[in-house]
Amino acid sequence: MTVPRNPRLIATDLDGTLVRSDGTVSDRTRAAVLAAQTAGSVFVMVTARPPRWLHDLSHLVGDHGVAIVANGSILYDVLRRKAIRARLIEPTIALEVAQAIRAAIPDVQFAIERPDRYGQEPVYLNRWPKPDDTLIAAIEELLAEPAAKLLVRHPSLHSDELLGLVNPLVGQRVTASHSGGHGLVEISASGVSKATMLADFAATQGISAAETIAFGDSVNDLPMLAWAGTSYGVANAHPEVLAVVDEIAPTNDEDGVAAVLEGFFQPLK
Questions:
Q1: What letter would DSSP give residue 115?
Q2: Residue 22 sits in which domain range?
């Protein structure tokens, strides 16, 4: 591991990493991010969140104006509220995968994220408020168009256990992971991960993996953490993350990302 004195690119997950457990971003974290950007580093949020959940964090985006959302499926212009690039699951493949999962795990419930719309089955246990234009429909209608993510929820299984059941069912047709949600597995197109879109974004900025530091806390962050020149797991991270990162930062509730950035950049007063 070689830690760059002044990382040119800072990539971070949001929930469980940059964002505190109460859903807030602290003043300390805001100051640390601003100091990094003022010093010339590029800061990018790389998250499982859908596009609509980034608008309240637009003040952190920086001059480039974009975030990587939906586990790397979408490069999103936060200020213009527009997808710039998307790698989606084709309807035929998505439906085959959903049918295979339901046949093997009968109690699962499905939802989808498109670049511009959310949809779910009527029985889906939604843990967050639904958008007003939510598409409520059977899985066949939900997957009639390409999807950024197919969400698989189970009412009682832990996400790790559910992922263990889903992976052998889907094979290489899609990419399955989870972001620590309760009984939730998130499926993207084959080969899509936070790392793939981050690498593409870094190339547009003329920045290499060696010049990048990345922060994460969950299984879906593993590809990004492996790609970055230096990886940090917050202390509250999933055991699989803590086992492979280069460094461990304080927890998200202790502003772990800010603590690391302050070691590189002097916060603005």
A1: S
A2: 9-86+193-264
pLDDT of residue 199: 98
Residues 154-212: pLDDT tens digits?
999 999 999 999 999 999 999 999 998 789 999 999 999 999 999 999 999 999 999 99
Q: Report whether 48 contacts 70 (CB < 8 A).
A: yes
Q: Strands, E, within the chain: which ranges? A: 9-12, 42-45, 66-69, 74-77, 82-86, 109-113, 118-120, 135-136, 149-153, 174-177, 184-189, 212-216, 230-234, 247-249
Mean pLDDT of the region 84-99: 98
**Domain total of the chain:** 2
- Under 8 Å between Cβ of 181 and 187: no
Long-range CB pairs of 247-252, under 8 A, 24+ apart, other chains included? 247/1, 247/3, 249/215, 252/16, 252/17, 252/18, 252/19, 252/20, 252/21, 252/217
Scan for tokens 């209608």, then name that residue: 141
* Per-residue model confidence as pLDDT tens digits over 115-127: 999 999 999 998 8
Report the CATH number that the domain containing residue 103 is assigned in CATH: 3.30.1240.10
Under the banding of pLDDT at 50, 70 and 90, the label for residue 1 is: low
- Rounded to the nearest 10 degrees, what angle do helices 27-38 and 256-264 cross at? 30
pTM exceeds 0.90, yes or no: yes
Across the beta sheet with 174-177, the strand order is 135-136, 118-120, 109-113, 149-153, 184-189, 174-177
